[in-house]
Amino acid sequence: MSHRFSHLETAPPDAILGLSEAFGADSNPNKLNLSVGVYKDETGKTPILEVVKAAEKKILEEEATKGYLPIEGSPEYAEDVRKLVFGDAVAQDRTVVVQTPGGTGGLRVAADFMRTQLPQVKVWMPNPTWANHPAIFMSSGVPTETYRYLADDRTSLDLDGMLQTLRESASAGDVILLHGCCHNPTGIDPSGDDWKQIAQVVEEKKLLPLIDFAYQGFGDGIEQDAVGLRTILQHTDEALVCSSFSKNFGLYSERVGAICLVAADAENATAARSQLKRTVRTNYSNPPRHGASIVATILGDPQLTAQWKEELESMRQRITRLREQFVQTMKSTGSGHDFGFLLRQRGMFSYSGLTPMQVDELKSKYGIYIVGSGRINVAGMSESKMQYFCDSVASVLS
């Protein structure tokens, strides 16, 4: 009897998660994992925010059911997400917010929605982009193309190249994937003026923006990080936004996200809501309750909201300090390499400029784990191990 699964081949391991497994087995006491995109404190742990603990205590005392949420999720959560993402930029009756299992879940719902409702479109992604973006669209059968994003110096935005690619190659109705802030993997974001030029091309080419908004509050602030998204919305009356609250609420394991759809009018929004619900129903059916309850509890209580903003500010400031400490410490090593460009970047990630060979040497000799592209998770650095890290980098650069 032949076995139906005998022809299956082992899938290649995820590049980043595979590094984490190797890191766990490494006995080097000075080891550092700068690959996985999670915030860490000085001890190397991913902390639970105090405000989250307070919200969970309140939920435990008041929660009355473990019944299913509606297909589109918690109404209270949806309204909080709408306000956080859009502010007053879009009329409420033109927006649809559907709770999803993390930002990744939101992107998959968006991709499946495109496949069934917008079957002729292709998605234009920045080069480079988050490694999972192309895989998500491929899994949904949505074709993709790339536009220039990173300049030849690999430390700045190639705005001219980006706009030229879109003007010359994108078709009307295509989707443009944009990182709302804290570009992953480079940390290189458009300026306010850059966003205006991008928005003009979106309008000229009649592109549908799909904005991956996974790091709101980790760049310059909650409202400041929404400037690009809201600038885009001044030039188009339709958009998709995928939000994640893994980072800014520290809810990595709770899988809390959303897909927000902006329609031209209330009637279109109602129709779109029904199709998004249909997409969800055939995927995971109903979203999980707990993480969304945490977010809604915090944003529904002024005191807890204020506490959350303080803790988020603290995380953001620590990342900035780590960038500054790394740049200064690298100067002291005498390596002759100026990493000052990291100070212009935002969020948890940065392109370091390290080559795959140098990255491999850092891992094998020093127990420092970095993605092969040279992308580093700044939030994984340690103040106490900074000298060791910088001396190791200087060694592989020499």
The helix-strand sequence is: HEHHEHEHEHEHEHEEHHHEHEEH
CATH architecture of the largest domain: 3-Layer(aba) Sandwich
Number of strands: 11
Number of helices: 13
Family: Belongs to the class-I pyridoxal-phosphate-dependent aminotransferase family.
GO molecular function: transaminase activity
Subunit structure: Homodimer.
Organism: Roseiconus lacunae
Describe the structure.
- This protein is of the alpha/beta class.
- It has 2 domains: 15-49 and 306-397, Alpha-Beta Complex (Aspartate Aminotransferase, domain 1); 68-300, Aspartate Aminotransferase, domain 2 (3-Layer(aba) Sandwich), CATH 3.40.640.10.
- It contains 13 helices and 11 strands.
- It has a 7-stranded mixed β-sheet, sandwiched between helices.
- The chain is globular, with a radius of gyration of 22 Å.
- It starts with 14 loop residues before the first helix and ends with a helix.
- The mean pLDDT is 93.
- Residues 30-392 form the Aminotransferase class I/classII large domain.
- One of its GO terms (molecular function) is transaminase activity.
- Pfam families: Aminotran_1_2.
- This is Amino acid aminotransferase.
- Homodimer.
SSE map:
Layout: H1 15-25, E1 32-33, H2 50-62, H3 75-86, E2 95-101, H4 102-117, E3 123-127, H5 132-140, E4 144-148, H6 159-169, E5 175-179, H7 192-204, E6 208-213, H8 227-233, E7 239-244, E8 256-262, H9 266-281, H10 290-299, H11 302-332, E9 349-351, H12 356-366, E10 368-369, E11 375-377, H13 386-397
Parallel strand pairs: 1-10, 3-4, 3-5, 5-6, 6-7
Antiparallel strand pairs: 2-8, 7-8, 9-11
Helix pairs in contact: 2-10, 2-11, 3-10, 4-5, 4-9, 6-7, 7-8, 11-13, 12-13
